[in-house]
Amino acid sequence: MKLDRFDRQLLNLVQEDAGQTADRLAEQVALSPSAIQRRLRRMREAGVIVRETAVVDPKQVGKPTFFVVSLQVERERPELLAQLRRWLSAHDQVQQVFYVTGEADFVLVVTAPDTENFDALMIRMVGENPNIRRFTTNVALSLVKRGLTIPVSLDEDD
Questions:
Q1: Residue 137 confidence (pLDDT) above 80
Q2: What's the CATH fold of domain 5-45?
Q3: 3-state class (DSSP) for residue 138
């Protein structure tokens, strides 16, 4: 899908706050509210906008702990990697999964109410995925920044 400058402006705005009304977005982009709605619908249908979520303040919902986990696998056979990807995708506590280069094969962002719950999840993960060689964990001491915003250049050539 070809994105013009208006689409790119809208993407930046809705990534910051997807709850803005078409009227509010129209105040920031030189388009009518109905044109805004059409463009957003088109971008959803084309898969440019994958989903819209609410960002929740962790302190307001029990202060979960965040863990950054590096996984190493034994073998990088496609069927074994696919099985691990399915397992990781099926668990809500696993918030992000990156297949990476370097010493680790995957880097995960995991949340749990406490270390006991995290440990139980890791025991299940290793038990149900024998291709995992090892994992290392970093515990987040504080949350400095959290987001999924992709900066979208307003230039169509970028």
A1: yes
A2: Arc Repressor Mutant, subunit A (1.10.10)
A3: strand
Cα–Cα distance measured from residue 7 to residue 42, given in angstroms and rounded to the nearest whole number = 10
At position 138, the amino acid (one-letter code) is: N
Q: What are phi and psi of 135, to 5 degrees?
A: -145, 150
Calpha distance 72→69 (Å, rounded)? 10
Segments making up each domain of the chain, as ranges: 5-45, 58-139
What is the DSSP annotation of 40-96? Answer: HHHHHHTTSS----PPP-GGGGT--EEEEEEEEES---HHHHHHHHHHHHT-TTEEE
Cα separation, 126 vs 56, in Å, equals 29
CB atoms inside a 10 Å sphere around CB 84: 21
* Model confidence at 56: pLDDT above 70: yes
Give the pair of three-digit tokens for residue 100.
Answer: 């990476």
Domain 58-139 fold is: Alpha-Beta Plaits (3.30.70)
List residues bridging with 109 in a β-sheet: 68, 96
Amino acid identity of 158? D
**pTM, full prediction:** 0.85
